[in-house]
Amino acid sequence: MGKVNDQHVALIRAFYEALGRADYAAMERCYHPEVSFGDPVFQEVEGRRRVMAMWRVQAGQRDGLKSELSGVTADDFTGTAHWSSRYTFASTGREVVSEIDALFRFEDGVIVRHHDDFDFKRWSRMALGRPHGLLFGWTPMWRKSIRDRATRALDELAADFQ
Questions:
Q1: Residue 14 domain boundaries
Q2: pLDDT at residue 50, rounded to an integer
Q3: From its phi and psi, is residue 43 left (phi > 0), alpha (psi between -120 and 50) or beta?
Q4: Is residue 69 part of a domain?
Q5: Fewer CB within 10 Å: C terminus or N terminus of the chain?
Q6: What is the CATH number of the domain that holds 123?
Q7: pLDDT tens digits along 101-130
Q8: Which residues are within 8 A (CB) of 66 and not within 5 positions of it... i.e. 6 or more apart?
């Protein structure tokens, strides 16, 4: 990573502060119109409208989201951050604590690429409990099932914002 870019560090912090307030308008201002997002569940989401719909889907699955940001670094082109999220998974009522590593790429002073990485098996064990999360959370078929449900929810919500 090159010389620290304080504006990009502030941009990452502003994004997560807005996420903590569920301030979607402020989150959206941090993203480039052609932003792409990826994580172990949603894999690849393209365009600001769909990425923001994805965040709304995630918010709908989480009650009482609390997040803590640490380790923010950024230069003129890329950035990283670590964030912890704690919430109740709405479908099961189970508490989830996720440790997430985020990578960013910047263009025109905003985020053009955002990738979150977390332990899918650990998440499914906490979110879904036994037996599903413990027994099946690591299997490709189970991951596909979770991803397919998330994609359907995203498609439905994104259609509402067209």
A1: 6-160
A2: 92
A3: left
A4: yes
A5: C
A6: 3.10.450.50
A7: 999 999 999 999 999 999 988 888 888 777
A8: 20, 85, 86, 87
Which carries the bigger pLDDT value, residue 137 or residue 117?
Answer: 117
Does 135 map to a domain?
yes
Q: Which residues pair with 63 in a beta bridge?
A: 88
Q: What is the pTM of this model?
A: 0.85
Tokens of 147: 């991803």
Residue 161 has pLDDT above 80, yes or no: no
Residue 1 in domain: no
The answer to whether 83 touches 69, Cβ cutoff 8 Å, is yes
Per-residue model confidence as pLDDT tens digits over 15-59: 999 998 889 999 999 999 999 999 998 889 999 999 999 898 887
Q: Are 2 and 76 in contact (CB under 8 A)?
A: yes
Query: What are the DSSP calls for the chain, one per residue?
Result: --S--HHHHHHHHHHHHHHHHT-HHHHHHTEEEEEEEE-TTT--EESHHHHHHHHHHHHHTEEEEEEEEEEEEE-SSEEEEEEEEEEEETTTTEEEEEEEEEEEEEETTEEEEEEEE--HHHHHHHHH-TTIIIIITTSHHHHHHHHHHHHHHHHHHHHHT-
